[in-house]
Structure of Pentatricopeptide repeat-containing protein At2g27800, mitochondrial:
Amino acid sequence: MAATRSAFMSSIFRIATARTLISPESRTSFTNPISLLQSRIEVSIPRSFHSFIASTVFGSTRISVSVSMSYSTTLPTRSLRRRISKRNNPKPVLDESKFRESVSNLPPRFTPEELADAITLQEDPLVCFHLFNWASQQPRFNHENPTYHAAIRKLGAAKMYKEMDDVVNQVLSVRHVGNENLYNSILYYFTKAGKLIRAVNIFRHMTTSKNLECRPTIRTYHILFKALLGRGNNNSYTSHMYMETIRSLFRQMVDSGIEPDVFALNCLVKGYVLSLHVNDALRIFHQMSVVYSCQPNSFTYDYLIHGLCAQGRTNNARELLDEMKGKGFVPNGKSYNSLVNALALGGEVDDAVSCLWEMVESGRVVDLITYRTLVAESCRNGKHDEARRLLGTLRERKLVDRDSYDKLMNVLRKDL
């Protein structure tokens, strides 16, 4: 019996890894095991566990252990996320044999172009980084644009951003080194890594550089526009905040003498649509051919149609759709889905059905939300028979699977 009690107490104290609070009565008689067993032990364990009570009976003695625990509702801190990321992604180990082989393949007095070729052909990015650093220590050798560019592309593609940042700092420390292609690659990988502030600092370095080969070009602004648009996360308020930066960048680009192309103008149109400023997007659309000598493409129309449908302006959306098809463009699935939903929600169910079949004939994929909206709005307008026939046609033509068909039938039954 004594051995059983001892084993139970040992298991309790192994579970209670945090501090253990014992009542004052049991502290005074701690040397007496019977009084300790009769006392109530309260154990406080860190969060992330459920609350529970454990109890057992040894003869006439009852031991009760209550553990009070709760879930954490706070988000993990940045330092905790970094520790978890390091734990899940251990630091890579250098393959010494590959490194020695890469060094031995270089000629005795290799040039920067030969080193750049060796870095490009090497598949292991860590070997490339050590090869780059090894070359930096060789006498009478200085890195040039090809070696910097090859190392940055290799490390950036492997998402080794810390090592890439070391190479970038070396680029920035040498005034005569650098060109537009090199800095654009740096910008691309920094924006891909989410290091937007670092990318902006690189852009400022490009604009103030005395080396004219490092000055920003239209491709530089493309990278920044795309990165800023991606930060909105389809949130209109966040998109509005970043849209101010995009407008400033666009104005700076035009003032510096760079002519905007259709991609840059489409970025403005998309940004205005995402921030719910559709009229500003239409203004840019009408200025494209008159002011900037650029013709709108299919992406321009798709952004505008989606934005107009989001505001319920179906007449304007259909006008743009007709103009788009007249130029030989085919609307994408997002534009068609937006228009069918907007027409159905606006009570124009027949036009929505016509647009739906036009969408199917064009080979665009209709999503389940569009089907659900069309069925629900048809029932809301008292067109139950038409909704039932539509579902039958969709099933006959195998446009929906069994699971989607059952969901749409449930929508129809609820409205009957």
About this structure: The beta strands are 20-22, 41-44, 52-58, 61-68. The first strand starts at residue 20 and ends at 22. The first helix runs from residue 2 to 15.
